[in-house]
Predict the structure of 8-oxo-dGTP diphosphatase.
Amino acid sequence: MSDVIRAAGALLWRDGPEFALIHRPRHDDWSFPKGKVDPGEHVLRAAVREIEEETGVVPRLGRRLPTVSYPLGERTKRVEYWAARPVAVSAFTPNEEVDELVWLPAEEAEARLSYRHDVDLLRGFREGPLDTAPLVILRHARAGEKRAWREADELRPLDEAGRAEASGLAGLLHSYGPMRTVSSATARCLETVLPYARRVRVPVETEAAFTVGETNPDQAMERLLSMAGTPAVVSTHGEIVTELIAGLCRKLGEKVPDDTSLDKAEFWTAHLAGGTLAALERHGTSAAP
């Protein structure tokens, strides 16, 4: 048994702003919606699922917030948080785990919250931008061995493992809601985002600036910056990903991550607001241990 209990949740807010707090009768406490990550479950899926189960709200995840850790018996509970906005709301149904849901302004929410770490989370959120736009930079899924492909490289498709990765990515990217979908003009990049695009019913645009062999770092960076401020996902190649992440961080005055590279089917999500980088997170399709 791991010494760490992994959980995921959100600071869910709506116009006002007002913040969603839940009451758990078992503990007689008030907190933000959250819950344990199931075995084999991706943390993004867990965050969305827990919010919907505990509040009846289907969320769109915003910027990543600080992870909160605290002792729970002889183990440690680690909760990964995001900001989130409602995109669909059904009637709240009280149950044994959560019997009340309230929406409160910040000051009233602070007074109602039972735990200091939740108050600190709310205060930290209010110090940053409320609303952000995700800009996802995605490396295409697996597409077999290049040396075994005898036709034009732009026609090389995803292999069986890559198709499974593309299907998994559709659900993970959907956590951020509908996004403009832009791809390298190669089969493997297009196929990587096709399941997501079909799920959210948006077209896939091809872009030479993100296509290996047809671009350079300056062209790719210029095109990426032109998309900032609108929710978007870019499906491209490993060598271009590195340039985009490093260039974006430098342009916005942020520290470049020590390792900007991605494995296939991994992605960076930059949460942008008013020309600033509010948060940067990295994910793959597999659940973290």
Notes: The chain has seven helices and 14 strands. The radius of gyration is 20 Å.
